[in-house]
Amino acid sequence: MKNYKHIFFLGIGGIGMSALARYFHKRNYVISGYDRTESETTTDLEKLGIKIIYKDSIELISKAIDFVIWTPAIPKESLLYNYFIQSGIEMNKRSEILGKITAQHNNIAVAGTHGKTSTSILLTHLLAHSNFSITAFLGGVSSNYNSNYVDTGGQWMIEEADEFDRSFLKLRPDVAIIGSLDADHLDIYSTRDEMVKSYIEFASLVDDGLVLMSDVINETDLQTFRSSISTNTKLLTYGMKDADVMCSINQIHNSWTNFTYVDEKDRIIEELNIRFPGRHNIYNATAAIRVALELGLTEEQVREGLVSFKGIQRRFEWIHEKNQVLIDDYAHHPEELKAAIEALRSCYPNRKITGVFQPHLFSRTRDFASEFGNVLDLLDETILVELYPAREKPIEGISSLTILDKMKSKNKSFVTKNQLVDSLRSRSLDVVALLGAGDLSNLRNDIKKILS
């Protein structure tokens, strides 16, 4: 990259793209970019002096651009995309650049259909809090650092290993974490078996390193991974069952979880505390602790790091916490929704929980409509708003109503986002959770104003 001076990011507002933009900006490249809409992310980038355009127009870009990084979320009919293709300017996908950067360093890749962001940000905080030399490209915004990019040095790098578009096969990790293998992105893989094959290929990229796999993954899959990875690589399971690395919850009080950690080296760390509700987040913490210990952190550094962890924006994020409660969570897969609802119940037993869910992607709604319906029935009250399409075009007959029709609960309804605040104002509310990976969070401040 040394020969380039001006890098243009096509889709700069994406969480992965913006982290890369921050990386290159810190290294004194001229950065500019395009995104479809303004957001808090693009505003923060503009504050750094990065020029961003919001119209797909060739006339608005600099003639000095000599390298382009793009995301597959950009439609192929984009005027800018086609201009760069025809201009001969070198273009690389985000995943290719991330792979090239991280391959030059010792690096940790966090994969899995759920838990990537939470695990990678937890691990990043444990290391950064202990003044460890790391650079982290994150899929969410750490509340401790108010950023999706953390840079305290280059001894190790941490990156999310995204299975979408098989992007994680561009990485060359020394340590890999795989948190779950539930079916997802079937628009890419068609079947879960095809998705698992890509994960096996990903794990096989670790040579003479460490692979950590959650015990929620079935034994058949685990055996396939064991027989497929390098004989020089150690594979350990982690979780709450009969795993190599174990955690056990002792108590949950005022949203704090007290737990014990035990691993295959007979290390026992008792009375650990973290405010990050849900069994799934204790799983995530267990993987993060094991890697942190592998890199040399002490028991006391782990303990202090967990207590000082402030959470992640849109991952069980408290927006309002008084008589009434408002929480924002990114859950957008049935298993993630189930975990989020279980966490809500653990924090607020015997209280009414109203969930507002925005389905994400037409294809995911089509593939998991029954599963979404079953999980949403676990709420006391469910409100669905219109589906967030992201990169997809409509699929005939698929909408939020597809899920609503699958639900058995009588306390269910559909409202548009424009109607949501007024609809909530007229209801008896106690604990409210905004759920989904779309743009529902844009309304959270308006919703907060109507809560006591």
Task: Please provide a written account of the structure.
This protein is an alpha/beta fold and 452 residues long. The chain folds into three domains: 6-93, NAD(P)-binding Rossmann-like Domain (Rossmann fold), CATH 3.40.50; 103-307, UDP-N-acetylmuramoyl-L-alanine:D-glutamate ligase, CATH 3.40.1190.10; 317-449, Mur ligase, C-terminal domain (Protein-Tyrosine Phosphatase, Chain A, Alpha-Beta Complex). Helices cover 33% and strands 25% of the residues. The protein has helices at 15-26, 40-47, 79-87, 94-102, 116-129, 186-189, 192-203, 219-228, 279-294, 299-307, 334-347, 362-367, 369-376, 400-404, 417-425, 444-449, and strands spanning 6-10, 30-34, 51-53, 67-70, 90-93, 106-111, 134-142, 147-151, 156-160, 175-178, 210-214, 234-239, 245-253, 256-262, 268-274, 317-321, 325-329, 353-357, 381-384, 412-414, 431-435. Strands 8-7-9-6-10-11-12-13-14-15 form a ten-stranded mixed β-sheet, with helices on both faces. The chain is globular and about 60 Å long. The model has no long low-confidence stretch (mean pLDDT 95).
